[in-house]
Every structure is written in structure tokens, then in C-alpha cells.
User: What shape does this take?
Amino acid sequence: MNILFVADPLASFKTYKDTTFAMMREAQRRGHRISACEPQDVMWQRGAAVTAHVRDLTLTGDAAAWFDDCGTRAVALRDFDAILMRKDPPFDSEYFYATHLLEQAERDGARVFNKPRALRDHPEKLAIMEFPQFIGPTMVTRDAEDIKRFHAEHQDIILKPLDGMGGMGIFRVGPDGLNLGSITETLNRHGAQSLMVQKFLPEIVDGDKRVLIISGKPVPYCLARIPQGSEVRGNLAAGGKGV
Assistant: This one.
């Protein structure tokens, strides 16, 4: 198969923990051909199929120089057997436009995973709100007064942006409410942007668990991400330990 990964710049990959790299490595091991591009490389011209300037890759097995660039070419996305959308957040306007271009590529005949419409309509931060029985007290708002009331009720809270990743922009505010106003202004940009507020769960010291479900069945392995030192963030990118 010819597989295209729409991803972040290859130079930014942290291969010791990057799942996109792990997918590439396994695809090559199985004999598939690998190409990569960034969302900015995708183009749609009137009357033509959606195309991209892609880099054909061969993985080397070296930890530092982990790929050989075998050349760049312009290819219609429908000519790939599979396209994996692996771009990390932020979920900004460019991410939004990328999902529209990939959706048009689907209409051209491309097979895109995950479906662009699903990525656009089902962002991961908001998706948890559909399962209230499995999450702690949580609120999404841009209103500072709502956040103050939530803090007054729960005392120890976490605030985070909706479009972040890797633990970026996550704050904890304790019962004293120290800096709550300033943190709120920073995250909601003075009322212009929504954020998520959650009750702090002290059980985080034992790590949060990532459980994979395939065809409705949980995989018999999970990843626990455990905060280190004085951190409340278990994200690996923020120094958390994975076990």
C-alpha cells in the first residue's frame, strides 16, 4: 500500500514517544510505502482533484537521522491507498480548513482516516462531555463569573484550553483562588475564547489511563501517565512518566 501521513513537520517528531512515527515504522515493517506532508502542502485547484506536495520516506532505524528523504512530488490524494490525518492541535482555522480539503479529497475517492468531518465535529476535549458518567465535574465556558462559581463549589480546580495538547496551558487553582482571575483572562482572552474547567482529582498521582478500544473491545494493555515531582500534569510532553 501507498500511505500518506498528513502530520507536523518531520523535524519536530520526538520518535521515542511519537505515535505517528510508530505507525510509520510498523507500516514500513509490513512492506508499505510511506509518504508525508503537512496541511500547508495540500492544495485544491478549480476543476482538479485535491493534491499535495509530498515527501517519500524511508525510515533508517537511526534514533537521530530517522528517515531518508527520497524526493518530493505533487500527487492527487486519491492516488494513495490510505491517508492518515495525524496533525496535532491547536484546532485553529488552518486545521479547520485542512479538514475541508481532506473531505473534498474523500469526494474525489481518497480514503482518509480519521474521517475529516469526524475530526471537525467531534474534537477530543469536548467529546468527553458526552459521557458524564465517566468524568468528574466539568464545565466548558468563556464566562469568568461561571468559572468563579465553579471554583467556589469545587475549591480545587483545573483550567485548560480547548485547543491545546501535551499539557500546554493547564493550570491548577486551589482553595485560596490565587491568580484565578489572571489565569482566566489568559485562557479565555478576556472573554473571547472558551476553555474547560474541571474539579481537580487527587487520584492523578496514580496516573491517568489511556485505554484503546477496537471494534468495541478494550485492548488488554493501557498506558498510565504519571505526573512527576510537583507537577499535576501527567502528559509525557510535560515530563510525565509512562508505565
Remarks:
- The chain has a mean pLDDT of 91.
